[in-house]
């Protein structure tokens, strides 16, 4: 008791002598910590937006690498048709330009082009892991880049075309693997950076709460010195950048600052006598406030027990962070969903694929993975414009979602590439029926802006565990099966099991 009395006496002396200065200092420090937390949140938003651009670009590199090979093969097939050959050569030139610009931007920083031909500023990748991946990609890209540059500068060079195809077939899988690794590494780095910034946000908030707790203690001593003047407490409370609510031992509100009035929509006269749980409540470990109009908002609340006039009271420190929560949810949606079609993107699809494979192993079930590439989309896009093409991609996404079950996952990888994960497959016939339905849905005509258009699809199907026993093998086989369908030049479905049975020599070439 002697030690407690001594500490209390010293604090009272400090409060009496330096109370005004300490009060001002406490308010300044609280505002400073609050500003730091807000600044960190803005910085986090900026970093996640920049990382999302790099992740999307690295995913697009994979599509562009595949398109290079597709264009070369189309040029080989159309060698005797000058018009078709020239069109394929023009598309090859554009694809090469986008791939080369983006890879160089990852290496040295600079400008590249978006899907809508807008200029994007890209900072160079600086971490050891991403730099190493980009360096490897540049080495793999160099011989293919040389051949393609020579090819696009000439007309009808069959020998050079064949050389370019040979190099592309050797380097394509390596480039695809490196771009996949780059995407994963960028996602990991973004998550790590976000966790680090959130740690400092939490630290700033924690320091602000400690500072405010000390301020409350000083306020309490000054209030006692001033004969427990509630008006004095009210003036102090209104200087703090947080909602302050004081309740008596029965939980009824006896005091609140202006910020609480602004948060809740209640006047001070309406708040007095109201129970705290009518405007604050906890749900699943999270705190929520209730406004006068009935609207709910997420908030952070710190609770302190104090004495006012020798009577127990509870002080609630309230910070409305609903805007921050909404922003975080929006960032999460952007990071995991394709903005054009609202479908899961590559990152979310890979997570679901991993989860479904684990479920299938536990339940002894089968799943099917479809790689889908639209046929004729580029022609529609070139003829009617990118906005029309975007509407068409959205319609394709809607049709696929309506065709499959709720338990299945449709995702967009980028461009006109989609994936579909079908779970709980009982038989080959069941799988074929579902895939046929998807193909039929895609190939039906589309009426967009009073224009009737048609597209086809090249589909590759790989089944787990019949065709592959892990994620990478399943993805690779589905991709190769889709590529086999694409080579036919028509809407076609290729099952990996059939492709492996009838084209072992192709598999050997791809593996080498």
TrEMBL record:
Transmembrane segments: 21-44, 199-219
Record-linked NCBIfam families: GGDEF, sensory_box
Sample GO molecular function, one term: diguanylate cyclase activity
Organism the protein comes from: Alteromonas oceani
Name of the molecule in the record: Diguanylate cyclase domain-containing protein
GGDEF domain ranges (all copies): 365-498
SMART domains: GGDEF
Broad enzyme group: transferase
Domain PAS: 229-282
Compartments where found: Membrane
Membrane topology: Multi-pass membrane protein
Superkingdom per UniProt: Bacteria
């Amino acid at each position: 008791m002697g030690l407690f009395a001594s500490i209390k006496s010293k604090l009272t002396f400090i409060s009496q002598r330096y109370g005004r200065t300490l009060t001002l200092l406490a308010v300044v420090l609280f505002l400073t910590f609050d500003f730091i937390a807000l600044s960190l949140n803005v910085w986090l938003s900026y970093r996640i937006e920049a990382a999302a651009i790099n992740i999307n670009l690295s995913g697009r590199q994979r599509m562009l690498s595949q398109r290079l090979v597709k264009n070369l093969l189309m040029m080989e097939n159309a060698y005797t048709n000058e018009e078709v050959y020239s069109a394929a050569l023009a598309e090859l030139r554009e694809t090469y330009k986008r791939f080369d610009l983006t890879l160089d931007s990852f290496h040295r920083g600079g400008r590249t082009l978006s899907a809508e031909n807008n200029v994007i500023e890209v900072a160079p990748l600086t971490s050891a892991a991403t730099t190493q991946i980009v360096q490897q990609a540049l080495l793999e890209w160099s011989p293919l880049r040389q051949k393609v540059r020579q090819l696009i500068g000439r007309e009808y060079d069959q020998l050079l075309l064949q050389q370019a195809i040979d190099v592309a077939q050797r380097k394509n899988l390596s480039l695809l693997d490196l771009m996949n690794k780059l995407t994963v590494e960028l996602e990991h780095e973004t998550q790590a950076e976000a966790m680090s910034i959130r740690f400092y946000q939490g630290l700033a908030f924690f320091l602000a709460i400690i500072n405010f707790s000390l301020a409350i203690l000083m306020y309490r001593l000054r209030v006692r010195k001033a004969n427990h003047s509630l008006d004095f407490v009210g003036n102090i409370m209104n200087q703090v950048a947080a909602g302050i609510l004081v309740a008596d031992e029965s939980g009824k509100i006896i005091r609140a600052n202006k910020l609480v009035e602004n948060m809740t929509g209640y006047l001070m006269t309406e708040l007095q006598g109201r129970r705290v749980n009518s405007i604050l409540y906890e749900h699943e470990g999270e705190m929520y406030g209730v406004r006068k109009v009935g609207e709910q908002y997420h908030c952070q609340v710190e609770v302190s027990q104090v004495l006012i006039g020798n009577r127990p009271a509870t002080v609630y420190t309230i910070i409305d962070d609903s805007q921050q929560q909404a922003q975080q949810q929006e960032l999460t949606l952007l990071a995991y969903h394709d903005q054009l079609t609202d479908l899961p993107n590559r990152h979310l699809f890979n997570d679901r694929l991993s989860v479904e494979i684990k479920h299938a192993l536990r339940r002894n079930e089968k799943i099917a993975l479809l790689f889908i590439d639209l046929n004729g989309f580029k022609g529609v896009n070139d003829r009617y414009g990118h906005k029309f093409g975007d509407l068409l991609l959205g319609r394709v996404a809607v049709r696929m979602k309506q065709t499959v079950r709720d338990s299945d996952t449709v995702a967009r990888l980028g461009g006109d590439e989609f994936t579909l994960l079908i779970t709980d497959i009982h038989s080959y016939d069941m799988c074929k029926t579902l895939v046929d339905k998807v193909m039929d849905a895609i190939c039906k005509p589309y009426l967009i802006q009073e224009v009737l258009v048609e597209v086809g699809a090249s589909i590759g199907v790989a089944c787990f565990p019949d065709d592959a026993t892990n994620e990478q093998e399943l993805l690779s086989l589905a991709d190769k099966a889709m590529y086999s369908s694409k080579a036919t030049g028509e809407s076609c479905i290729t099952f990996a099991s059939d492709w492996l049975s009838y084209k072992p020599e192709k598999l050997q070439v791809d593996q080498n």
